[in-house]
Amino acid sequence: MVAADVVDLNFNYPSLPEQGDALREALRQLAMAGDIDSHLRYQPHAGRLAERDIIARHLTCQHFAPDAENVLIVNGAQHGLAVTVMGLLRPGDVVAVDALTYSGFKVLAALYHLELAAIPCRPEGPDLQALQTLCQQRRVRAVYTMPTLHNPLGWVLNTGQRQALADLARQHDLLIIEDAAYARLVSRPPPPVVSYAPERTVYVTGFSKNIATGLRVGVVISPPRYRPEIERAIRATTWNTPTLISSLICAWIEDGTVARFETQKRQDARQRQQVAREVLCGLPVVSHPDSYFVWLPLGEESRADRLANALMERRISVSTAEPFCVSATIPQALRIALGSVPFDSLRPALLSVRDAVEYEQYR
Description:
Aspartate Aminotransferase, domain 1; alpha/beta; single chain; Aspartate Aminotransferase, domain 2; seven-stranded mixed sheet; 11 helices
């Protein structure tokens, strides 16, 4: 989080103007429901089966129809990643990750003493030949992947890449951890990687980016053989996700609120991307039309930390590549989050970023 007087282009917590009123109404309906007393009691570690069934149907798409028994409700996607790591990996395990990857997974890996092995990033996705070579040289236990709206690079892997990743995982007996935190923002995504290798893929998603970050409800979809260990990790960390919030989310799924918000968020993300492309035109921006962030590589003589400090002096917060970087050499680049600032404030903030970048390049 950043100070109230800072324009936040660092973190993404997109929200819509109507969401506050929707939450008030949902809480009122929840208070009037007949089973309100049940929220005062412990619940199954994986969540109530009726809610898991609602979520399973919500996530069903082409080539992917999860069984409610394999759906585990958690306290947000970050918690989903944590219980997956806790339950299925051990200290010292080697996990292949993109050379630029989600910073939250890096934190988990450090806490649980995992060894992250960097896979080079190409414009279209990870270098799978490099992953193949790594698996031939090392005992790799798992691969962590964001195939649909990669954070921070924004790529969406095509079906051929997804199949190739699944084939490689089978060949080398890898656990696949598929992070789909941003996937619901893509209008027509390919089938998830879990549909290509369901027996070895743990699929993790949530309702933060497509609905609201404060509603800490996430989902883990696990192969049956992994489910008991992940449930044990849920028990050890939170016992169960509070049903006050999971029941609210499920009610929104059933009455169409989630679908409506997702449609509006996709439109909002595309509009913000358009503003970013207009303002940053001519700079080497890397992004996806449905993404709430852009990646901005800098010139050879530029220093991202110096640029970020200069922007902070203007009360604008951005991220450098360092939190995302796994390889030894940190690229000089910025990740610019588009989802947190009011829409009317986005263009002037990005103009300030452009001015600072151009000044840094020609100083």
